[in-house]
C-alpha cells in the first residue's frame, strides 16, 4: 500500500507539473513582441521547414524586436484537420495572432470578423499577382496575403508515351491547348497500350483537391456552381452546361481511362502514363524519382468553347482580428511576403511565384515543367468561388465528383446534380 | 454507520466532490448546453447573432438526407455487428472450452486483435484492404478471385467496417463467454448424460440457458458501443463512398466543426442521444423480463 | 480412427481461425522490418509475413521513422497522459464509490440515479460542447485538457461501490471507535482491502486513455503534445507516406499495451461495459 501511495503522489505531482508547464508556455507567448503563428502543415514537411527558416531570419533581423513563434498544425485527411482547429479556436476566442488560411476561406473569415484587414502593413502590395490580390480581398479590403500561387496540369511520362507511339512534338501547350475529345483519344490509346487506366486523377482522396482540380472542367464548358449573385446553385449547378461537364468526368471513369482506386505513386513508378496533379509533384519527382522523364501539359478544354481554364489559389497569411499585437503581426506578414522571401518559398517548395517582380527570376531557375504551370496560371488561372459558406459548398462538390465515379449508381447526372444543387442551396440559405 | 446527520452528509459529499465536479464539467454541463444550442441557429463564426429558432433545426435534420442516411447506416452496423461479433465470440469460446494441447496458444491468438487500438486497426486494415495493392486482394487474385472494392464500394464498405470491428472485439467477448462456461457446474451435464441426452441437446437445453445472462450483458455493451461508431469510418473511408459509412456521431462532428453549424449539430446530438437512451432502456427492460 | 480424424479436423479449424485473427498483426510487424520496396514485392506470398531476410534491414525503418518524427516525444506524451489518468481515476472514483457504499446521505438515491442515467449519454456526441467547457477553464492545448475529462467515470464509481459494499461494516466501526476519521479509514482500511478493484480500474483507465483519439485530436494544437494515437494519423497523412514507416509506428504504439495486457490479464475481464469492448 505504501508503494502504491507513493506512486499515486508522484503521479499527481506529475499532473500538476504538466499543468504548470502549460501555463508557463502560455505566459511566455503573452510577451508583447512575440507573435504566435499557426501554420497548416506538420512541421516535418518541406514547406514548413522553408517557412521556419524565414521565420528564424525574421526573429534575428527584426529592428523592432518582434519575434514569431510558429505552431504547426497538420491538415490531416482523416478528421481533426487544421480548419477544424481554427473553427474550434473561434468558438473559444483562442486564435493566434497570425494564421494561414486557404484562399477560398477568406470571405467567410473576413465577413465574420475573424481576420482583420492587413493592407496597410504590406509594402509589396503593388507587386503581388492580381490573382493573389483577388483571393485575399473582401469588400475592397485586403484581408490575407498569399505567399505562393498554384496550378495543376496533366503530367505525362515521356518514355511511356513514346513507347505507345505518341509523337511528343504534337502534344498540346499553353499557347495551343487541346480539347476533352483529344484528351480522351490519348487516354484511350494509352489505356489500350498499357492495360491500366491511363490517367491518375486523385479520385481516391476526399479533400479540397476534388474541388480545386475538377471545377476547371465545369468552367471551361461554361457551367458553374452558384449563380452570379451567389445566392443559389439550382439553375446553375444543374444547368445543361454543368451536366455536360460532369458527363465528361464520369465518362473518364466509365470508360476505364481513370480509376477511383489508383495505385499509390502509380505515375511516379511508371504504372500510369498520365497524372492530373499540381506543382508539388514536381518537387516530389525531383527528390524521389529523378530518373523518370516527364513533361507537363495544360488542362484539356471543352470542345464547345475551347476555353482554357486552370485552377489557382493558395494558402495565405492573415492577421486575427482578436490580436492585441497588430503592429507586430503586420510586420511579420509584411516580412513573409517580401519579394526575396516569396522567391525563396517558390524555389524551395517548387510552388508558383506570388509576385510579378520575381516571375522572371524564378522562371530562369525552375524546370521546364514548372514553366508550363507558371504560364498556364498567368493565362488562365480561375479562382474558386468567394463564399462565406465555402466549406459546405466545397464538400458538396467533392461529394458530387465522388458520386460520379460510380457510373452504375449515378447514370442520371441530371438527377444527381438536381439533388446536389438543392444541398448547396440549403447551405447558402 | 447508518446514522444520518449533517456532518455525515458533509463528509459524504466531500468524498463525492471531485468526481461530481468532473462529471458535471465534462458530461452534465455539455449535455445541457447541447440541448440549449439545439434550439438556436448558432453559427460558429457569428456567435453574436445567435437567436432562438424553436424547433427549426429539428425539422431540418429530418429532411437532411445525410443525417437520415447516417441513421440507416448505424442501424445496419448495429444489426450486423451484434450477431457477427457475439456469435463469433460464443463459437470461439465453445471451441476453446476443452482440455487440449496448444489451447493457450489459440486463446492468445484469438484475443490478439483486442490489444490494438481502434486507430491502429483502422489504419492497418486500410492498408490490408487497399483495392489495388493490398495484401487481401493480392491473395484473392492468386486464388482466382477478382479484387474486391472492400472500402471503395458503397455496397460493401459498411459491411467491411462491421467485419473489422467484429474481428477486433470478438476475442475479448470470447473470454467473457469462457468465464461463463466455466461457471457451469459439470454435474449438470453428468445428470443429463444419464437421461441419455446427446451433445447437441445438452448445448440447447443446458449451456445456452445458463449463458443467457452473460449473452445479454455482452449484447447490451456491444449495442451501446456500436452506436458511437466514428473512428473506423473517419480513418478508413471518411464517411464515404457516397455517404455509405457516414455515422451520426461522425456527422455531428463534421457539422459542428467542419461546417461550423453548432446549433444544427446540437440538434442532432439531442435526437441521437435520445435515440440511444431509448434503445438502451428497451433493451434492459426486455432483458429484465427475460430473467 | 474416427476419433483421430475428428481431432485433426478440429485442429485444422482452430489453426485456420488463428490465422484469420493474427495474420494482420504479423504482416504489420513484418512490414515494419523491411524496406519499402520489399513490402510491395513480397505482397501476397508467404514472404510478406516474414521480416527482411537481411537482419541489418530490420531496424532501418525504425531509424528512418525516428529521424523524420519525434516518436519518443509522442511515446512519452502517451505514457504521461495514461499514468495521470490512471492515478486520478483510481483516487477520485474510489472516493465517490466509498461515499455511495458506506454513507447514507441526503439525495443519495437521486444522485445515484442521475449518474446511472449519465452512463447512457453518448459522450462522443457531446464533443462540441465539451470543447467549449475546456476552453472556459482555460486549459485548451494543455496536457490537463487531455487528462481531466477522462478521470471521473460512472462505471468505475459503480465498480468501486460494489466492491466496498463487501467490506464489513464491523471493521470500519471498530477502527472508528479508535478515533480514526473517515479519510484515515478510507486510506488505511478500505483502499488496501480492495486491490483487485484498484487493479481493474487502473488497467481499464490506462487502456482507455492510451487509446483515446478524438478528444486529444481536438484540444491539442501543438503537435509536440500529441499522444501516439493522434501522431499515427498525422504520420499517415504527412507526405511522403511510406507503408513500412506507418507499420512501424503502429507497432510502436501497440507494444506498451501488450505489456499492460500481459501484466494485468486477470483484471481485464471485469471491465465488461467499460472500455475495451472492441467497438468503443
UniProtKB/TrEMBL annotation, chain A:
Signal sequence, renumbered to the chain: 1-21
Assigned keywords, A-Z: Cell membrane, Lipoprotein, Membrane, Palmitate, Signal
Coiled-coil intervals, chain numbering: none
InterPro entries assigned: Bact_solute-bd_prot1, SBP
Keyword Acetylation: no
Keyword Membrane: yes
PANTHER family: ARABINOSE-BINDING PROTEIN-RELATED, POLYGALACTURONAN_RHAMNOGALACTURONAN-BINDING PROTEIN YTCQ
Protein name: Extracellular solute-binding protein
Amino acid at each position: 500500500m505504501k508503494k502504491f501511495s507513493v506512486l499515486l503522489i508522484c503521479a499527481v505531482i506529475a499532473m500538476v507539473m504538466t499543468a504548470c508547464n502549460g501555463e508557463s508556455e502560455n505566459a511566455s507567448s503573452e510577451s508583447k513582441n512575440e507573435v504566435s503563428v499557426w501554420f497548416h502543415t506538420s512541421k516535418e514537411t518541406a514547406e514548413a521547414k522553408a517557412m521556419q527558416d524565414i521565420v528564424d531570419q525574421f526573429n534575428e533581423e527584426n529592428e523592432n524586436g518582434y519575434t514569431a513563434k510558429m505552431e504547426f498544425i497538420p491538415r490531416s485527411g482523416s478528421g481533426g484537420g487544421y480548419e477544424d482547429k481554427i473553427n474550434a479556436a473561434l468558438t473559444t476566442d483562442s486564435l493566434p495572432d497570425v494564421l494561414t488560411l486557404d484562399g477560398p476561406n477568406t470571405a467567410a473569415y473576413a465577413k465574420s470578423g475573424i481576420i482583420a484587414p492587413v493592407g496597410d502593413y504590406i509594402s509589396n502590395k503593388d507587386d503581388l499577382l492580381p490573382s493573389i490580390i483577388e483571393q485575399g480581398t473582401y469588400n475592397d479590403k485586403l484581408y490575407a496575403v498569399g505567399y505562393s500561387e498554384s496550378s495543376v496540369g496533366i503530367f505525362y511520362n515521356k518514355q511511356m508515351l513514346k513507347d505507345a507511339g505518341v509523337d511528343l512534338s504534337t502534344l498540346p501547350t499553353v499557347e495551343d491547348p487541346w480539347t476533352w475529345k483529344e484528351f480522351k483519344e490519348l487516354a484511350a490509346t494509352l489505356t489500350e497500350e498499357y492495360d491500366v487506366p491511363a490517367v491518375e486523377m486523385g479520385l481516391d482522396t476526399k479533400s479540397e483537391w476534388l474541388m480545386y482540380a475538377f471545377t476547371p472542367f465545369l468552367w471551361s464548358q461554361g457551367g458553374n456552381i452558384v449563380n452570379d449573385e451567389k445566392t443559389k446553385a439550382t439553375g446553375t449547378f444543374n444547368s445543361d452546361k454543368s451536366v455536360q461537364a460532369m458527363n465528361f468526368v464520369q465518362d473518364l471513369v466509365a470508360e476505364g481511362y481513370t480509376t477511383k482506386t489508383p495505385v499509390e505513386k502509380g505515375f511516379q513508378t511508371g504504372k500510369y502514363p498520365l497524372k492530373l496533379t499540381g506543382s508539388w509533384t514536381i518537387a516530389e519527382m525531383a527528390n524521389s524519382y529523378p530518373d523518370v522523364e516527364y513533361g507537363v501539359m495544360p488542362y484539356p478544354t471543352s470542345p464547345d468553347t475551347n476555353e482554357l481554364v486552370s485552377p489557382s489559389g493558395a494558402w495565405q497569411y492573415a492577421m486575427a482580428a482578436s490580436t492585441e499585437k497588430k503592429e507586430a503581426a503586420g510586420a511579420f506578414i509584411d516580412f513573409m511576403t517580401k519579394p526575396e522571401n516569396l522567391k525563396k518559398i517558390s524555389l524551395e517548395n517548387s510552388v508558383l511565384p506570388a509576385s510579378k517582380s520575381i516571375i522572371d527570376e524564378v522562371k530562369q531557375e525552375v524546370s521546364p515543367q514548372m514553366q508550363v504551370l507558371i504560364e498556364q496560371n498567368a493565362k488562365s488561372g480561375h479562382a474558386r468561388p468567394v463564399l462565406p459558406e465555402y466549406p459546405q459548398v466545397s464538400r458538396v462538390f467533392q461529394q458530387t465528383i465522388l458520386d460520379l465515379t460510380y457510373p452504375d449508381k449515378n447514370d442520371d447526372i441530371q438527377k444527381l446534380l438536381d439533388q446536389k444543387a438543392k444541398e448547396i442551396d440549403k447551405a447558402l440559405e | 454507520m447508518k446514522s444520518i446527520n449533517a456532518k455525515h452528509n458533509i463528509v459524504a459529499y466531500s468524498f463525492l466532490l471531485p468526481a461530481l465536479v468532473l462529471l458535471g464539467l465534462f458530461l452534465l454541463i455539455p449535455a445541457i448546453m447541447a440541448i440549449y444550442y439545439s434550439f438556436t441557429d448558432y453559427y460558429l463564426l457569428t456567435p453574436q447573432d445567435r437567436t432562438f429558432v424553436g424547433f427549426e433545426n429539428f425539422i431540418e435534420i429530418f429532411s437532411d438526407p445525410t443525417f437520415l442516411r447516417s441513421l440507416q447506416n448505424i442501424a445496419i452496423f448495429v444489426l450486423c455487428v451484434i450477431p457477427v461479433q457475439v456469435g463469433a465470440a460464443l463459437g470461439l469460446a465453445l471451441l476453446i472450452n476443452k482440455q487440449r494441447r496448444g489451447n493457450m496458444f489459440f486463446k492468445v491468438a484469438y484475443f490478439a486483435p483486442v490489444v490494438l487500438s481502434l486507430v491502429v486497426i483502422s489504419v492497418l486494415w486500410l492498408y490490408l484492404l487497399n483495392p489495388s495493392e493490398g495484401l487481401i486482394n493480392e491473395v484473392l487474385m492468386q486464388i482466382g478471385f477478382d479484387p474486391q472494392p472492400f472500402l471503395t464500394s458503397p455496397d460493401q464498405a459498411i459491411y467491411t467496417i462491421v467485419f473489422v470491428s467484429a474481428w477486433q472485439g470478438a476475442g475479448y467477448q470470447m473470454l467473457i463467454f469462457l468465464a461463463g462456461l466455466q461457471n457451469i457446474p459439470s454435474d449438470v451435464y453428468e445428470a443429463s448424460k444419464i437421461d441419455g441426452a446427446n451433445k447437441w441437446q445438452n448445448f440447447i437445453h443446458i449451456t445456452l440457458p445458463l449463458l443467457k445472462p452473460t449473452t445479454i450483458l455482452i449484447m447490451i455493451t456491444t449495442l451501446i458501443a456500436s452506436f458511437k461508431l466514428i473512428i473506423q469510418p473517419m480513418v478508413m473511408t471518411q464517411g464515404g463512398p457516397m455517404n455509405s459509412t457516414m455515422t451520426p456521431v461522425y456527422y455531428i462532428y463534421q457539422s459542428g466543426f467542419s461546417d461550423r453549424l453548432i446549433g444544427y449539430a446540437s440538434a442532432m446530438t439531442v435526437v441521437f442521444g435520445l435515440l440511444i437512451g431509448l434503445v438502451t432502456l428497451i433493451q434492459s427492460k426486455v432483458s429484465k423480463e427475460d430473467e | 480412427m474416427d476419433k483421430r480424424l475428428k481431432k485433426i479436423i478440429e485442429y485444422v479449424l482452430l489453426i485456420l481461425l488463428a490465422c484469420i485473427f493474427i495474420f494482420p498483426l504479423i504482416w504489420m510487424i513484418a512490414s515494419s522490418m523491411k524496406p519499402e520496396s520489399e513490402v510491395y514485392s513480397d505482397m501476397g506470398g508467404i514472404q510478406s509475413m516474414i521480416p527482411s531476410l537481411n537482419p541489418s534491414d530490420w531496424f532501418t525503418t525504425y531509424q528512418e521513422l525516428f529521424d523524420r518524427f519525434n516518436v519518443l516525444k509522442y511515446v512519452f506524451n502517451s505514457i504521461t497522459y495514461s499514468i495521470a489518468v490512471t492515478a486520478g481515476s483510481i483516487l477520485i472514483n474510489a472516493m465517490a464509490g466509498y461515499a455511495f457504499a458506506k454513507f447514507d446521505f441526503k439525495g443519495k438515491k437521486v444522485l445515484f440515479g442521475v449518474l446511472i442515467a449519465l452512463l447512457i449519454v453518448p459522450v462522443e456526441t457531446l464533443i462540441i460542447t465539451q470543447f467549449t467547457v475546456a476552453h472556459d477553464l482555460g486549459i485548451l492545448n494543455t496536457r490537463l485538457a487531455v487528462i481531466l475529462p477522462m478521470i471521473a467515470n460512472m462505471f468505475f464509481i459503480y465498480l468501486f461501490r460494489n466492491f466496498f459494499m463487501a467490506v464489513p461494516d464491523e471493521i470500519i466501526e471498530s477502527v472508528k471507535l479508535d478515533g480514526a476519521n473517515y479519510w484515515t479509514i478510507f486510506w488505511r482500511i478500505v483502499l488496501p482491502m480492495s486491490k483487485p478493484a484498484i487493479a481493474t480500474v487502473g488497467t481499464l483507465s490506462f487502456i482507455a486513455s492510451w487509446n483515446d483519439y478524438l478528444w486529444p485530436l481536438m484540444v491539442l494544437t501543438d503537435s509536440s503534445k500529441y499522444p501516439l494515437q493522434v501522431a499515427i494519423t498525422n504520420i499517415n497523412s504527412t507526405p511522403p507516406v511510406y507503408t513500412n514507416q506507418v507499420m512501424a509506428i503502429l507497432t510502436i504504439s501497440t507494444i506498451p499495451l501488450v505489456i499492460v495486457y500481459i501484466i494485468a490479464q486477470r483484471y481485464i475481464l471485469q471491465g465488461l461495459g467499460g472500455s475495451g469492448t472492441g467497438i468503443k
